[in-house]
Amino acid sequence: MEKNIAIDYLRLSITDLCNLNCMYCTPLEKSRFLTHDDVLRYEEMARLVRIFTRAGINKVRLTGGEPLIKRGVVDLVKMLKGIEELKEISMTSNGILLKNLAPSLKAAGLDRINISLDTLRKDRFKKICGKDAFDDVWAGVEEAIKCGFDPVKLNVIPMQGVNDDELPDFARLTLEYPLIIRFIEFFHTNQRSEKLISSLISSVKTKKIIEQRFGVMNPIDSVQGNGPARYYKLSKAKGAIGFISGSTGNFCGNCNRIRVDCAGRISPCLFSGQVCDTRGLLRGDSSDDLIKEQIKRVFNNKSKYSRFSINERVVEMSSLGG
Ligand code: SAM
């Protein structure tokens, strides 16, 4: 029997542009970015989020592309903060621009931030991400902690032959910093990620590598957040370590999230493609109630969409966000 999971978590991609070119993410041929007019304006995004809250959403995560390259992103956070029903606003970012923006994001009401970082080595960062920006990202991580974001999570994708020798180094960070290091299994998304399929390191293996170095970890209940991660702690650690088994596990049955891209297209699942286009409705004379009905229809059909019920399809994380 299908479970009825309350859908309360919206991931909103606010731009399809990024200031990095990661080896597993950016499409090989990104021939067409959305035009300025294709992309929802902040007022439209805020209206849409408000309507989503009336359909049951109470948490929103801003993602991209890279959300921090979007001019005025702090204003968007402020606008969203004004939506009473929203209990939490979070963001996933590569952290490059975070050092300067963290204080104003915090002041605007951003509650939490996840920073994607696959290496702690400067030279390697350029190889993985196409740009020499490790120092900027690390400065962003430190600033986020300093500003009081709690918790600050680092998203790491373990990849054989790419960063597998650094997994204990990431784990060690939790001894020194109050960071939540989340090891996320790589999954096949687009043409570019295809050649990395054989680099997948399972959560089980990553945990084993860490425990070989630091001893058996104690499981902990949960840390603040909405993800399907399992969490552990090293002895005397300030932070924690999480594992997300997107490739070897199946947590579709517990998925409480819905995704919207920056053009207002709703995807009930990362792999479902877009099933509802709200931009026309937002720009036409549709009432909030009518748009809410469309959203509710997607919610009601969400259980039909899961990675395991959809034939293999291309998904561009670089625009829809993680
Ligand atoms: N630019 C922001 C960032 O870097 O966090 C947000 C967008 S980025 C697409 C969001 C997340 O998706 C990143 O943590 C990235 O590592 C993850 N991601 C992209 N492609 C992936 C893949 N094939 N498997 C697992 N995670 C992936």
Structural class: alpha/beta
CATH superfamily: Aldolase class I
Bound molecules: S-adenosylmethionine
Shape: globular
Bin the helical content. Answer: 25-40%
Instruction: Average the pLDDT over all residues and give the rounded result.
Output: 91
CATH-derived architecture: Alpha-Beta Barrel
Strands ordered across the widest β-sheet: 7-8-9-6-5-4-3-2-1-10-11-12
Contiguous helical run count? 11
Order of helices and strands: EHEHEHEHHEHEHHEEEEEEHHH
What Rg do the Cα atoms give? 19 Å
Commentary on this structure:
With 322 residues, the chain is of the alpha/beta class. It has one domain: Alpha-Beta Barrel (TIM Barrel). It contains 11 helices and 12 strands. The longest helix is centred in the last third of the chain and has 14 residues. The structure holds S-adenosylmethionine (SAM). The site of S-adenosylmethionine (SAM) has 21 residues, from strand 3 and helix 11.
Throw out a few tags for this protein.
single chain; 322 residues; alpha/beta; TIM Barrel; twelve-stranded mixed beta sheet; 12 strands; binds S-adenosylmethionine
Task: Provide a quick synopsis of the model.
The chain is an alpha/beta fold and 322 residues long.
